[in-house]
Amino acid sequence: MQMRLGEALRVTLRGSSHGPFVGALVEGMPAGLTIDENQVQAAMALRKTGGTYSSKRREEDRVEWRTGVVNGITTGETIEVHIANNDARSSDYSFLPDHPRPGHQDMVMMKRTKGEADLRGGGTSSARMTAPLVAVAAALRPWLSSHDVVVEAHLGAIGSVESAPLNACPERWANETCKALRCRDPAAATKMAELVEATRKSRDSIGSRVDLQVEGLPLGLGEPWFDGLEPALARAMMAIPAARGVEIGHGFGVQTMLGSQHNSPWGGTSEDPVLLGDRPDGALAGLSTGAPVHLRVAFKPPSSIPQVQHTLNMKTNQQEPLVVKGRHDPVLGPRAVAVVEAMAVLVIADLIIRGGFSNE
Questions:
Q1: Residue 36: other Cβ atoms inside 10 A
Q2: What pTM was estimated for this model as a whole?
Q3: Per residue in 214-272, pLDDT tens?
Q4: Cα(53)–Cα(283) distance, rounded to whole angstroms?
Q5: Which of 74, 125, 219, 304 could form a disulfide with 328 if both were Cys (CB 3.0 to 4.6 A apart)?
Q6: What is the side-by-side strand order in the sheet with 4-5?
Q7: If you classify domain 4-359 with CATH, what class do you get?
């Protein structure tokens, strides 16, 4: 089964959640880029476990650049990214494969591979596989910055608690709660924290949403049809484990809008056209307009919850009670912030190279 993202910049995932490592092979990375290790580890810290509102699995997430990087600089050759797994507890999954978990890939992956898949911790479908994606994207960020592209995300909602829009919250992390939740709105973060704690005490989990903003894209970035900016971003976001919906621009709000409300007129000059209006579309027909791109990704409640669920036991052919043990997230949005940013960086970098914008 192929696990690859991109065409000019190709990232192929390797490893598994409870194997010895997770990693990636990266082809097409521009040569001569300096890897900022501090920036890489800061990005890894945003998505890692062990925090207040995440699984208690503790991984160091030290990134090794085994090939394609010499003295901290990319050579243009294939890069092998390696991140060791040191805190996997496979005994927590002793009920597999006999008793597949509700809401997980256990059953479908087992059938797909005729029982050969490693299901521990989600195997190759685990959110653990996002670690190398975040590492590669962090290495690319300075290169994107040199093209004046800024990619930022934050926690947009937990349950019914909504944060203010990203551009209305200029301060990154106003306090420790904001930092722990990756939410820039202090008032919303406080309510979110209370909701997560109440959900955790009831031995349940809750859904969430990550909001993304991309600024500085050149006019016309994107490929025709299936690799347009919107479909490329949506495909990448929906590949994130537990993603269940993507909105771009006004999203599903367009169903109640009139064309006269949604259309944004062009202003500026013929040399420098600019979209006007309130929150104009960042992409039209798959091509960037120069306006900011706004995107939202909804994540389902984590499926592993510490309460009794009745589900099929493959040995007895009976629905039997199952309590999933181990260390699991009560909500996914906080850790997904770093992953949503990473996916956007990887897609945009690929489109920049493919469209020849890196040569301008």
A1: 15
A2: 0.92
A3: 999 999 999 989 999 999 999 999 999 999 999 999 999 999 999 999 999 999 999 99
A4: 34
A5: 304
A6: 4-5, 10-15, 21-27, 79-84, 63-67
A7: alpha beta
